[in-house]
């Protein structure tokens, strides 16, 4: 077997893959009436357990269903809440939120409960980050946020209504402040379910914000040139193996 064949095959097979990852944005800011990419504006409070389903702003091929929840900070029990759609983004109203008054219709972690939204997608995505808007709670402006990739949550169909009572998945925390507008997610992997919460840190109970947009990405797909290079590499490796086998037969 000639060294040139082996080298050429190895270089073709091991060459860095060139890939394209598609990015999609979902709009959290409401409009006067619902469209495929925007939610209709709501009041500050309403019936718990409501949901909104949206297409991304760039493609109807990626869809997201969003619902609102609360975690009891003492018992860790989870209950459904009201998902509000407002001029500055999605918020959550639930127990101890005074029917949404005092800016408590934001996603917050005050008064013994931590609000979060559950995002369900029709395809596996990575949640890259979110845009936030803050109005302050008790004259405090902070936007520390937590993300989780929905480990262990697997709806039968991607847009099925959930009955979530507990969650043991890991949270990834991102620090924000009074001037934050975009907060990136350090959680890894691709999932059809993501969670976005006010900070889950027990030492941090002063965060509140609305979610004005979500940015997600799908797994990278190799470009045509990369596929061609890989096929050529397999072909060269096959040729070298055939030559080696023929040489062994002649030498026998």
Structure overview:
This protein has 252 residues and is an alpha+beta fold. The protein is 16% helix and 35% strand. It contains two helices and 15 strands. It has helices spanning 3-14, 224-251, and strands at 19-20, 23-27, 51-55, 63-72, 78-80, 82-86, 89-93, 107-108, 113-133, 145-148, 172-174, 182-184, 191-198, 208-217, 221-222. Strands 2, 3, 4, 5, 8, 9, 10, 11, 12, 13 and 14 form an eleven-stranded antiparallel beta sheet that branches. The protein has a two-stranded antiparallel sheet with strand order 1-15. β4 (63-72) and β5 (78-80) form a beta hairpin. α1 (3-14) runs antiparallel to α2 (224-251). The longest helix has 28 residues, at 224-251. It is globular, with a radius of gyration of 24 Å. Mean pLDDT is 88; it is low at 1-17.
The stretches of 5 or more residues where confidence is low (pLDDT under 50) are 1-17
Query: How many extended strands?
Result: 15
Please report which band the strand proportion falls in: under 5%, 5-15%, 15-25%, 25-35%, 35-45% or over 45%.
Answer: 25-35%
Largest sheet: 11 strands, antiparallel
Gyration radius, rounded: 24 Å
* Contiguous helical run count: 2
Could you state the oligomeric state of the chains shown? single chain
Computed structural class:
alpha+beta
Tell me the distance between the termini.
Answer: 15 Å
**Coarse morphology:** globular
Question: What tags apply to this protein structure?
Answer:
2 helices; 11-stranded antiparallel sheet; disordered N terminus; alpha+beta; 252 residues; two-stranded antiparallel ribbon
